[in-house]
Design brief:
Blueprint: H1 2-36, H2 39-45, E1 47-48, H3 63-70, E2 75-77, H4 82-95, E3 103-106, H5 119-123, H6 128-144, E4 149-150, H7 174-189, E5 200-206, H8 225-232, H9 234-241, E6 246-249, E7 253-254, E8 257-258, H10 263-273, E9 279-281, H11 289-293, H12 298-308, E10 313-314, H13 318-328, H14 334-350, H15 363-368, H16 373-386, E11 388-392, E12 404-408, H17 434-442, E13 447-451, H18 460-465, H19 480-492, E14 496-502, H20 521-531, E15 537-542, H21 550-555, E16 558-561, H22 569-577, E17 643-645, E18 649-650, E19 654-655, E20 661-669, E21 675-685, E22 696-705, E23 710-717, E24 724-725, E25 731-732, E26 736-743, E27 749-756
Parallel strand pairs: 1-10, 2-3, 3-4, 4-5, 5-6, 6-9, 12-13, 12-14, 14-15, 15-16, 19-27
Antiparallel strand pairs: 7-8, 11-16, 17-20, 18-20, 20-23, 21-22, 21-26, 24-25, 26-27
Helix pairs in contact: 1-14, 2-13, 2-14, 3-4, 6-7, 6-16, 7-9, 12-13, 16-22, 17-22, 19-20
The structure holds beta-D-glucopyranose.
Length: 757
């Protein structure tokens, strides 16, 4: 025992020593550079221009190439391909005075060329291993192709589905989103950032970007500190704790100061309170946008940003062009610039770029490790896990491979829309559309017939705006009625109709806010016409946000929400439609029954007048025209099998802050198919020093149960599980009564009570 202890101590000392010598080596390298760098060269490291896309050879004479040579560039992004990247790196390490290598960034958001579901879809897997693996594969591919830095994970909590970027995040819940943030950072960075197959992550958008007023992108954010700390900040903090190498400042303001120049945010909170040691980059033109925000001219906003703790300027060149003048005029000190430069150099050191600037430029790897059949198979498997079965009346699904299947809708045959938003490295033309996925799956067992049936939207201008970046849907110029008639004719001769409707890939994502979050009317008309044929209809819903599906939920027997499943979407959808994979996805954002309920989320406060009886109740907190309930609650998702829950068993009904209590529940697969279930633990803090939500997710476990099998799922509850940020923003667990709720979604739960003494 004693021996073990001594060995343990020695091992710890060894690790601490290794860490220290790594830091010392880093300090030595960075100090040696900083000693010889001119002020201009230091400022140059803070500059991150967008390369646009060069093909090999073109880059050499570009304006950017000249800047690299002058030492005016710290990193580049929007450049793809190992040859083009190598060429740029060569300029930096051969032609610039100090030979400092460049960072190469990219928005590798949900996969590189092998594309995984959009992050909102990925979050619906509730499978941290799968999520980590998706980031691992992305890092593997990106690093094989020259990239060493990704602008991901995006961990903005979003509770307003009008905001298009809800698609890029992990939903509405801080606990789940924090778990995902950790998994993503682990996946990208691994345990050794200098390994050639790991890349640096950049957590974004710091902070609160998802709470933009009215769901309009880039809009103002204004929020109480206690909501920030309890609901919006936890995922960023989790990423920092997981060792995220960099953070991206968000476009929005916080307390009247844009995040990009917000000293409280970038220094007091991020560095002093959370201990972040990496670097902070602005978002795209985030620095110069502060002119429009109205806090100064380019020189003023650039100096304010650096003084606040910003280290790198994406695209604005405000830092590059004004900081020297600001130093001369005494508006900022050289020491502040040195500090920012140090952080950029440290990142390069951590990535191993000083040892080998071409560490991520291995042509052989680029040929053999990208878009491999293994990676695509992983993407297909994870995509199938992300789909959420919202409705399945009469067990219309899974479909049988027989007879004639009519595939109808504008999303049926569009490879370029499968990957979803922010898939810049994707080979869109090679993504698997639903039509070919289904055809491959049925082979000669069934006949698949196809008609488009409707355009994305009757309004051609809206459709053009929602299908940018080469993601057009081949608009059909026949009348909407003619398109519909053709589809109905086909549907009448079929045994079952699969309608692939919803949004295009670019209808969500950046600058894609919507005030109407229903399926576009022309597609709804098509759906009505299909239902009127009397044939069974399955709605395969493509979307990047929660939609209002109130009508569809009454009229269509089966709804499978497939988000945007990535490069392998078509195959993955076929896997689920035909029951080769049993769906297990659960919603991570609430689906409202009416847009007027937005923002609607499960972890709301109780109010002083909660609706206690039946809707409608005068002088209680409810609406005249729609009940408070969502259409589909957080955590909801069906399966082809059924699960039943026993009662909650607590190991004790009281605990002290030093104890733990376990809460167990028996879950049984009561159906005839094997399947996975996400068992969810919610806790209600009944009385607090500040008002507390009606429930909060505090644990979950995804269990696989064979038909008829039972498992007991156990959660351990400690003081940490019960803690929150109080009015003084202290993380505390307050003595008192708690309600434990365990169930299949945030509404259907079994409860038990206990007290913290
Ligand atoms: C987005 C970021 C992205 C950046 C670089 C910005 O417009 O807000 O999420 O990382 O562009 O492409």
């Amino acid at each position: 025992m004693k021996k073990l202890f001594v060995f343990g101590l020695l091992a710890c000392a060894f690790v601490a020593c290794e860490k220290k010598s790594a830091t010392t080596a880093m300090d030595a390298k960075v100090d040696s550079l900083l000693r010889v760098m001119t002020l201009e060269e230091k400022i140059g490291q803070l500059n991150l221009p967008s390369a646009g896309q060069f093909t090999t050879g073109q880059a050499l004479n570009s304006d950017i190439a000249k800047k690299i040579e002058q030492g005016s560039v710290g990193g580049l992004f929007n450049i793809k391909g190992v040859a083009a990247i190598r060429e740029m790196q060569q300029i930096a390490v051969e032609k610039s005075r100090l030979k400092i290598p460049l960072l190469f960034g990219m928005d590798v958001i949900h996969g590189y060329e092998s594309v995984f579901p959009i992050p909102l879809g990925l979050s619906c897997t509730w499978d941290m291993q799968a999520i980590e693996q998706s980031a691992r594969v992305a890092a593997q591919e990106a690093s094989a192709d020259g990239i060493n830095w990704t602008f991901s994970p995006m961990v903005d909590i979003a509770r307003d589905p009008r905001w298009g970027r809800i698609s890029e995040g992990n939903g509405e819940d801080p606990y789940l989103a924090s778990e995902i943030a950790r998994a993503m950072v682990r996946g990208y960075q691994g345990t050794d950032l200098s390994a050639p197959n790991t890349i640096m992550s950049c957590t974004k958008h710091f902070a609160l970007y998802g709470a933009s007023e009215a769901g309009r992108d880039y809009n103002t954010v204004d929020m109480s500190r206690h909501r920030m700390y309890n609901d919006y900040l936890p995922p960023y903090k989790a990423a920092v704790e997981a060792g995220a190498g960099s953070m991206m400042a968000s476009f929005n303001e916080i307390d009247g100061i844009p995040a990009t120049a917000n000293q409280w945010l970038l220094t007091d909170l991020l560095r002093k309170e959370w201990g972040f040691t990496g670097f902070v980059v602005s978002d795209y033109t985030g620095v110069s946008e502060m002119i429009a925000h109205g806090i100064g001219d380019l020189q003023e906003v650039s100096a304010r940003a650096v003084a606040a703790g910003l280290d790198m300027d994406m695209v604005s060149e405000g830092l590059l062009t004004t900081l020297k003048k600001s130093v001369d005029e005494g508006k900022i000190t050289e020491a502040q610039i040195t500090q920012a430069c140090r952080r950029i150099l440290e990142a390069k050191f951590k990535l191993g770029l000083f040892d080998d600037p071409y560490r991520y430029c291995n042509e052989q790897r680029a040929k053999t490790e990208v878009f491999t059949s293994d990676n695509r198979a992983t993407a297909r498997k994870i995509a199938a896990q992300s789909f959420v079965l919202l409705r399945n009346e009469g067990n219309v699904l899974p479909l049988k491979k027989q007879g004639t299947i009519a595939l109808v809708g504008p999303l049926v045959n569009t490879a370029v829309n499968m990957a979803g938003t922010w898939s810049v490295a994707a080979r869109h033309a090679e993504s698997v559309p639903l039509l070919s996925g289904l055809q491959k799956s049925v082979g000669t067992q069934a006949r698949v017939v196809y008609a488009k049936g409707a355009n994305l939207d009757a309004d051609a201008v809206l459709e053009a705006n929602a299908t940018m970046f080469g993601k057009g849907l081949n608009r059909d110029n026949r009348s909407e009625a003619a398109l519909r008639e053709e589809a109905v004719r086909l549907a009448r001769q079929s045994d079952v109709i699969v309608a692939a409707l919803g949004e295009s890939a670019e209808m969500s994502g950046e600058a894609s806010s919507r005030v109407n979050i229903e399926i576009p009317q022309t597609q709804k008309d098509l759906l009505q016409a299909l239902i009127a044929t009397g044939k069974p209809v399955v709605l395969v819903l493509f979307t990047g946000r929660p939609l209002v599906l109130t009508e569809e939920s009454k009229q269509v027997p089966a709804i499978l929400n497939v988000w945007f499943g990535g490069s392998e979407a078509g195959d993955a959808i076929a896997d689920v439609l035909f029951g080769e994979v049993n769906p297990s996805g659960k919603l991570t954002t609430t689906f409202p029954q009416h847009l007027g309920q937005v923002p609607i989320f499960y972890a709301h406060k109780n109010t002083g007048r909660p609706l206690t009886g039946k809707w409608f109740s005068k002088f209680q907190s409810n609406y005249l025209d729609v009940p408070n309930e969502p259409l589909y609650p957080f955590g909801f998702g069906l399966s082809y099998t059924t699960f039943s829950y026993g009662d909650v068993n607590l190991s004790a009904t009281e605990m002290t802050a030093r104890d733990t209590v376990t809460a167990s529940i028996e879950v049984t697969n009561t159906g005839t198919r094997d399947g996975a279930e996400v068992v969810q633990l919610y806790i209600r803090d009944v009385v607090g020093s500040i008002t507390r939500p009606v429930k909060e997710l505090r644990g979950f476990e995804k269990v696989f149960l064979k038909a008829g099998e039972k498992k007991t799922v156990t959660f351990t509850i400690s003081a940490h599980t019960l803690s929150f940020y109080n009015a003084e923003l202290k993380w505390v667990a307050e003595p008192g009564d708690f309600e434990i709720q365990i169930g299949t979604n945030s509404q259907e739960v079994k409860t038990a009570k206990f007290a913290l003494k």
